[in-house]
Amino acid sequence: MLEVRDIHKTYERRPLLQGVSFSVSTGETVCLLGASGSGKSTLLRIIAGLEQPDQGQVLWDGEDLAAIPVHYRRFGLMFQDYALFPHRSVAENVAFGLRMQGLPREEIRVRVLAALSQVDMESFAARRVTELSGGEQQRVALARALAPRPNLLMLDEPLGALDRTLRTQLLDELRKLLHHSGIPAIYVTHDQEEAFAIADRLVMLHDGRVEQDGSPLEVYARPASAWAARFLGFVNLLSGWVVSLDPLRVETPLGHWLVGDACSGADRSGKPVTLLIKPYGIVPAATRAECNYLEGIVQDVIFRGEDFRVDILAQGMEFQFFVDQPFQVGQMVRLNIDPQAVLCLD
Amino acid sequence: MTFGLRRRENGALGAVSQRAGLPVWLWAAPLLFLGLFFFYPLSAVLRLAGEAALAEGLKGAPWSRLGGALWFTFWQACVSTLLTLLAGLPAAFVFARYRFRGKRLLSALLTIPFILPTVVAAAGFNALLGPRGWLNGLLMSAFGLNYPPVRIINTVSAILLAHIFYNTSVVIRVVGSVWAQLDNRLEQAARSLGASSWRTFLEVTLPLLRPSVLAASLLVFLFDFTSFGVVLLLGGPRFTTLEVEIYLQTMQFLNLPFSGLLSVLQLACTLSITTLYLWLNRRQPVPLSPRLSPDGLWSVRRWRQRLLVGGVIVGITFLLLLPLVALALRSFLVISPEGDLSLTLAYYRELFINRRQTFFYVPPMVALRNSLAYGAATVTISLALGLLAASALNRRGRFERWMDAILMLPLGTSAVTLGLGFLVVFTRPPVDLRSSPWLVPIAHSLVALPFVVRTIQPVLASIPSALRQAAAVLGASPWRVRREIDWPIATRAALAGAIFSFTISLGEFGATSFLARPEYPTLPVAIFRFLAQPGDLNYGQAMAMASLLMFICGLSVLVIENIERK
Fold first, then answer.
1. Considering A32, A239, B352, B548, which has the largest number of Cβ atoms within 10 A of its Cβ?
2. What pLDDT is stored for residue B376 in this prediction?
3. B84 in Cβ contact with B167 (< 8 Å)
4. Which positions in chain B touch A54 (Cβ < 8 Å)?
5. What's the confidence (pLDDT) of residue B20?
6. Interface size, chain A vs chain B, as Cβ–Cβ contacts under 8 Å
7. Which residue(s) pair with B334 in the sheet?
8. Quick check: A3 pLDDT over 90?
9. Chain A environment of B489 (Cβ under 8 Å)
């Protein structure tokens, strides 16, 4: 379906995108995840045809779209702050794309109502868009983007402007709607929770490149890099270097660590690596162990409903773990960590 | 009345809306117009003054009149500005901080002076306080007097009062909007740190308001400085400002060189005031963070608050409404020599009749017809040029910033100077337009053009590029985007600009008094003539014409408000 190939884009003489490639297949929702300023929105605009890449191609069913202007691409784009036409009513906004296709009036009317009922806004058809609340505007913008049945729907931080409760609710509806409609979608966000909730596949952008591309499960189970791990909310990162390969053993300032999950790639002997210690699977230790051992002072204990988050300071480094039983603040703890909970990143 | 520009920065993301190249063809017509009808007459006035200064012709110039006019112009402008601030600042405070019943109605009232012709205001004050006015009429019939006891017309007080009438709204608008935007948590913070309410005002509020107070003062000073109709109609022969002196020297003493000299002096003064105003307005040193919640408005509770808010409501209503109501009522009223009052439609009936069977006096209805025709022509010219200029201004660059300033120049030039310039240049070859009916609407268009541009341009600029892009993504071609997005949104602003321009043309008095040929007077010119004539009938007809003018202008305001609300 959609294939984005080696896109380069410079913005104000700074490289913004440096060879981004990914694809979206039929019915799939792909989440572009990255920090603000990572070029996500620019990438969307390039796909939509609103901007030209310096280099690279956007292909649809194998055909290069470079020569096809925005208004012939039949991609839907939902703008960050919705860009509803203030001089038109809700229904007229939704009808816009259909009118551009030159459909007969009666069909437009029917499809506008259908699109509005998809987002539960039929009763608002005659309203002015300036009278709508943020959540209502979001729904109308979605209906407007969906009504012409675009080949691809792109959503640029569609929930960014809304408050938290509304976000959770709309996120759910959006997810159902995308999956029901079967329209392939690209969803841009900087919020990993949102991304996990809605994506069939995550594409993480960092420094103008795709850092990682995979299903939410894969990405969470195995972040591709220290940056990806940090961006996904992991805290426990340790740098060290490989001392032996089978089993994989890494030397760090906090002793030696056995890694259950082998590094991908070839020989890493003596190479610097980063260890990610998943926040689960710690066992209190009776004595000092030879490896996979952490000794520190409990800084803070935070109740999270199901379990507790424990912040531990070990040799000046912060670690976070989730445990069933609370620890005492100020307590000295010794922990053994399951090698299966230790990952080796590049 | 402050035509501040807040631009939305499109940045590089507005790629689709950016069209390359200098829009030369957009600029051609507005530039040609300004060059021919603004810079050319103005340069002629300058040359006139220069030649006069070099030649012997000024030996017998009435230098004492110049000194007197200059002194009086500054003096009355200073006093008027001070009084206006005194009246406007408390009102600005009340509007910014209190919630009270009738607030919206009162804000609507405040738009009156922006659109009311000076001739109408002068007639209104005359109807209220003049020797044939309400106050004197009532006093005379109450006490059986055979002379009007209140003599305020043809004194400085009348001039000052009319200036307060006109400019209090400016102070309320300019200062009040900034005051309402002040984050009142700043004041709360000061109070919580131990400052008294007075101390808080002195140390927190006032310093934050200072730029806006300065800006408002300068604007008011500029309006007072260039005041023409008010001084001519309410001040009488004893008081002449520079503007009035130019008029008298040109029209009565036919001393064109001296008029030129006065105009140059006037131009130098107004340009320095305008420059100072723009310079002060440019630096807004304190970033004003908008208030987060609208519940910052106070409701009126204690008796001191009642006194303040009540005083402002009553004061504004009296100041703004009383002259207008007096005018409308006076146009239906006959005061017999015995002091008896009775109602009549005679003045309106007389509007269709030419009592003086002379060539130079036309029935007042013809003046109305002239005014409407000139108004229509002004709308056509200023709207066409304004639309071109506004679209051209919409791409921002160094060139556009310069053009923006140049387009605003006629605002800082007095209408009387403009009128003189037209008279000097266009009543002799090579461009003899003396008998052309276009001279008046062209002058009106010059005055109206800055307003039209300032009405349309911000609307065009404020269309977010995302709207155009959204339309494009939904399948609209670039041409279709213009038709579906830009034009419908700009149409409303254009309509408002058109009505604005129409009312400006209807009320314009300064330039018209130079240019209107005797047999083709406009309504304001006719009102001026009839007011200057003796007799109750002439006075009543002036009142009737002024009421008509007021009615048309009021209607226009209503239409504009309706357009803007939609």
1. A32
2. 94
3. yes
4. none
5. 40
6. 70
7. B342
8. yes
9. 86-87
Q: Is residue B533 part of a domain?
A: yes
pLDDT of residue A264: 52
Q: For residue A101, which residues of chain B lie inside 8 Å, CB to CB?
A: 475
Domain harbouring B488, CATH code: 1.10.3720.10
Highest mean pLDDT (candidates A161-175, A213-227, A271-285, B326-340): A213-227
CA distance B526 to B538: 11
Chain B environment of A86 (Cβ under 8 Å) = 467, 489
- The answer to whether B469 contacts A85, with C-beta atoms less than 8 Å apart, is no
Residue type, A39: G
Contact B474 A48 (CB under 8 A): no
| Architecture in CATH of A2-227 | 3-Layer(aba) Sandwich (3.40)
Which of B15, B34, B52 minimizes the C-alpha distance to B381? B34
The predicted pLDDT at position B555 comes to 86
Predicted confidence at residue A267, as pLDDT, reads 60
pLDDT-derived band at A268, boundaries 50, 70, 90: low
In chain A, what residues touch B564 (CB-CB under 8 Å)?
none
Per-residue CA distances from A325 to A296, A304, A308, B8 (Å):
17, 12, 7, 55
Q: Which residues contact A8 (CB under 8 A, 6 or more apart)?
A: A15, A17, A18, A19, A53, A54, A55, A56
Sign of CA dihedral B455, B457, B460, B461: negative
Does residue A301 contact residue A308 with C-beta atoms inside 8 Å?
yes
The answer to the question of residue B37 being in a domain is no
Question: Given a cut of 50, is residue B327 above it in pLDDT?
Answer: yes
Nearest CB to A51 within list B15, B476, B488: B15
Q: Choose the closest CB to A77 out of B13, B473, B476.
A: B473
Band of pLDDT at residue B337, cut at 50, 70 and 90: low
Domain that holds residue B544: 365-566
Residues of chain A within CATH 3.40.50.300 domain(s) are 2-227
* Least CB–CB distance from A71: residue in B13, B15, B472: B472
Is B194 within a domain?
no
- Please tell me chain B's helix, strand, coil percentages from 3-state DSSP, rounded to the nearest 5: 75, 0, 25
Q: Say which residues have a Cβ less than 8 Å from residue B71's Cβ, sequence separation at least 6.
A: none
For A48, the closest of B464, B473, B485 (CB atoms) is B473
Q: Where in chain A is the domain with CATH 2.40.50.140?
A: 234-345
Residues of B in contact with A70 (CB under 8 A): 16, 469, 472-473
Contact B469 A12 (CB under 8 A): no
- Interhelix angle B536-565/B523-532, rounded to 10 degrees, is 150
pLDDT score at B190: 74
Distances (CA, A) of B365 to B126, B502, B522, B523, B559: 22, 18, 10, 9, 24
- Residue B492 is assigned to a structural domain of this protein: yes
Nearest CA in chain A to B477: A71
Is the pLDDT at B34 greater than 80? The verdict is yes
Dihedral of the alpha carbons of A90, A91, A97, A103, in degrees to the nearest 10: -170
pLDDT at B260: 85
Over residues B56-112, the pLDDT tens digits come to 555 666 777 888 888 999 999 999 999 999 999 999 989 888 888 888 888 877 877
CATH classification code of A234-345: 2.40.50.140
Q: Of the given ranges (B75-89, B297-311, B536-550), which has the lowest mean pLDDT?
A: B297-311
The tally of domains found in chain B comes to 1
Q: Which residues pair with B187 in a beta bridge?
A: none
A86-108 pLDDT per residue, tens: 888 999 999 998 988 889 999 99
pLDDT at B460 > cutoff 60: yes
ipTM score over 0.85, yes or no: no
Chain B: give the shortest CA distance to residue A72, in Å. Answer: 6
Tell me: pLDDT of A303 over 70.
yes
Q: Which two tokens stand for residue A34?
A: 């990255």
